TrEMBL record:
InterPro entries: SBP (IPR006059), Sperm_putr-bd (IPR001188)
Main localization (coarse): periplasm
PANTHER family associated with the record: NORSPERMIDINE SENSOR (PTHR30222:SF12), SPERMIDINE/PUTRESCINE-BINDING PERIPLASMIC PROTEIN (PTHR30222)
Name of the protein in question: Putrescine-binding periplasmic protein
Domain of life: Bacteria
Taxonomy of the source species: Bacteria, Pseudomonadati, Pseudomonadota, Alphaproteobacteria, Rhodobacterales
Entry similarity comment: Belongs to the bacterial solute-binding protein PotD/PotF family.
């Protein structure tokens, strides 16, 4: 009886909280990752206002989610992080009855994403992309010759080449999963390996080029590439392409390029999810359904330069975006992609220890 009473009280409190927040939702998304008018259009169509906050690393998001009571209605984790968060009970199943625009989604891509969320029960793809190399074309030409083609991780992982760019600045993403796996692939190892020996081998190689790295950050490199403050970065595809567009709008004498290395690259999905304790789950479903509208999805892709998984939006995407192989990679490039599953506890400890060593340079 006491348990029933507690449940009844909790249900009443939840209902009151839902009523109190029915006209607003709280969204937590990556920085620089939505069209300027998306939120305004959503509010105009639904009457629901949006409190929009941003993060720049999966670790930041995960800490908020695992702590509980985040207050967010919609969050956007990357697929491998989301997978273990689902196992921890962080996200609620989606109500498909509230998501009529699910029919717009690319079934093949959703099937790939189902490897992280069986049956896509808790999530919908927001955007996807690759992790590759952002570079200042002028700096590369000056140091490696006018005819040099950036098509290999060697420009960052070969100590002799990387040293040529130390003066103008190299940035690494602030996450081990975007540096250690490509280092493994560069060395001829499997990037999805969980062997401690392979991790140590990759980390030893990265330590050799660690002195060339100016900083670790997962968003600062966008503006720094655009402004010429750095000349090389390990970066996410759309972020680098945003930097390229910003650079083109100034009187800079250089361009910013993005390369998917021939050795291969990490293919990832960023997912729309609803926390289990979301204050306004109905509003959250309305937001996710709105994002899956064909025109809205196209507007976002056209602005942020990341591909979406919305088949209905394809005719609405700008031709120069749709035909850009750095946005929508070729079949040949896709053959070298890998996806990452969550590490087990042992591998996570190894990865974290080595990343601390790399960040501190000791």
């Amino acid at each position: 009886m006491r348990n029933r009473f507690i449940l009844a009280v909790c249900a009443a409190m939840a209902a009151q909280a839902g009523a109190a927040t029915a006209d607003s939702i709280n969204v937590f998304n990556w920085s620089d990752y939505i069209a300027p008018d998306t939120i305004e259009k959503f509010t105009a169509e639904t009457g629901i206002s949006v409190n929009y906050d941003v993060f720049d690393s999966n670790e930041t998001l995960e800490a908020r989610m695992l702590a509980g009571s985040s207050g967010f209605d919609v969050v956007v984790p990357t697929s491998d992080y989301m997978q273990r968060q689902i196992m921890a009970g962080v996200y609620q199943p989606l109500n498909r009855d509230l998501l009529p625009n699910l029919g717009n989604m690319d079934t093949d891509l959703m099937e790939l994403a189902a490897a992280f969320d069986p049956g896509n029960e808790h999530s919908v793809i927001y955007l996807w992309g690759t992790t590759g190399i952002g570079y200042n074309t002028q700096a590369v030409a000056e140091r490696l010759g006018e005819d040099y083609v950036v098509d290999s991780w060697s420009i960052l992982f070969d100590p002799e080449k990387a040293a040529l760019f130390q003066d103008c600045g190299i940035a690494w993403l602030d996450t081990e999963k975007e540096l250690i796996p490509p280092a493994m692939r560069y060395l001829g190892l499997e990037p999805t390996s969980t062997s401690e020996e392979d991790f140590n081998t990759a980390a030893d190689m990265l330590m050799q080029v660690r002195p060339t790295v100016r900083y670790f950050h997962s968003s600062q490199y966008i503006s720094d590439l655009a402004n010429g403050e750095i000349c090389l970065a390990v970066g996410w595809s759309g972020d680098v392409l945003q930097a390229a567009e910003r650079a083109s709008e100034t009187d800079q004498e250089f361009e910013v390029g993005y390369a998917i290395p021939d050795e291969g690259a990490h293919l990832w999905f960023d997912m729309l999810t609803i926390p289990v304790d979301a204050p306004n789950p109905e509003g959250a479903h309305a937001f996710i359904n709105f994002i899956m509208d064909a025109q809205i999805a196209a507007d976002i892709t056209n602005y942020v330069m990341f591909p979406n998984a919305n088949s209905a939006s394809t005719p609405l995407i700008d031709e120069d975006v749709l035909n850009d192989p750095t946005v929508y990679p070729s079949d040949a490039a896709r053959a070298g992609f890998w996806t990452l599953q969550p590490y087990d506890n042992r591998t996570e400890r190894v990865s974290t220890r080595l990343w601390t060593r790399l960040r501190t340079g000791q």
